[in-house]
Design goal:
Elements lengths: L7 E4 L6 E4 L10 H7 L5 E4 L15 H14 L5 E6 L1 H12 L4 E7 L9 H15 L1 H10 L8 H8 L7 H17 L1 H5 L6 E5 L1 E3 L5 E3 L7 H9 L3 E5 L7 H4 L1 H12 L4
Parallel strand pairs: 2-3, 2-4, 4-5, 5-6, 6-9
Antiparallel strand pairs: 1-3, 7-8
Helix pairs in contact: 1-11, 2-3, 4-5, 4-7
Length: about 270
């Protein structure tokens, strides 16, 4: 978009590249374990979304704009066959990317996704605006980041996640968060209903009614897992227990093996 340059880290080779999309206010560094491991078998491209990491911000902080930007990058690179992997907000981005450019997508990997709003769109956005204004966006983000972890999250993982906090553009984050709430309430389910490629769901947590993140226990599911399973015809679900919101960092071996097994069935 407008000659925007998107920062990527690319390693490995293979006929079907894996495009790795990080979550809200994060960066491509969240995929370090996947890039180092999976690139021995596949071409891996980790992306800094516009407005994140080393990629400049877009004109609008929306799910649709971020998805369009990455699709535009893939067009420029001549990539017409890919697997998309997204973490957290990245799950929304890869769904929207598929919605916009479904001809190129051969499979989707959803990692610890969620739906943060439902029902009346304007009411959902109004509630989010009230919360952000009452707390202030810095305090909202502080609470948001604290919610990433469980008691089992190693200190090194906590430190690596928090190290990125100071670089967040507060105004951009606020605009994007409110748009994400709107997108969830208005489009998440309808977009999922259009997915017609195989999907892998790797899930480690769920959000309770207070939007507090809880580690999944044996036999538990989540609203997000249930929605994907209901909407998408070909779904594999992998639950990773006892970790927080970043299974690709906290349980990289399990995450990488699940992605590898999924890739074996992609043509």
């Amino acid at each position: 978009m407008n000659n925007m340059q998107i920062n990527i880290a690319e390693h490995g080779s293979g006929a079907v590249p894996i495009i790795l999309i990080h979550g809200f206010t994060r960066s491509l560094s969240d995929w370090s374990h996947q890039v180092s491991s999976l690139s021995t078998r596949y071409r891996c491209m980790a992306v800094d979304l516009p407005g994140h990491g080393r990629s400049p911000p877009p004109r609008q902080a929306t799910i649709e704009t971020l998805a369009h930007s990455v699709n535009h990058m893939l067009d420029d690179l001549g990539l017409d066959t890919v697997v998309l992997a997204g973490h957290s907000m990245g799950c929304r981005i890869i769904s929207e990317m598929t919605n916009q450019s479904r001809h190129r997508v051969r499979g989707l990997v959803y990692i610890d996704g969620s739906i943060v709003a439902d029902g009346d769109v304007d009411a959902a956005v109004s509630r989010s605006i009230e919360t952000v204004e009452r707390l202030g966006m810095p305090q909202f983000l502080d609470r948001f980041y604290h919610g990433f972890f469980t008691e089992n999250t190693p200190p090194a993982i906590r430190e690596s996640v928090w190290a990125h906090f100071a670089s967040i553009d507060i105004n951009f984050a606020k605009e994007l968060w409110l748009n994400m709430v709107r997108w969830d309430a208005s489009q998440s389910r309808s977009v999922l209903a259009t997915i017609d490629v195989p999907a892998l769901v790797i899930q480690s947590t769920f959000l309770n009614s207070d939007l507090k993140r809880i580690s999944l226990s044996p036999g538990q599911s989540s609203t997000w897992v249930d929605e994907v399973s209901k909407a998408v015809g070909d779904v594999t679900v992998q639950i990773i227990e006892g970790v927080g919101h970043f299974p690709m960092l906290e349980a990289p071996e399990q995450t990488n093996e699940a992605i590898h097994q999924f890739m074996q069935h992609i043509r």
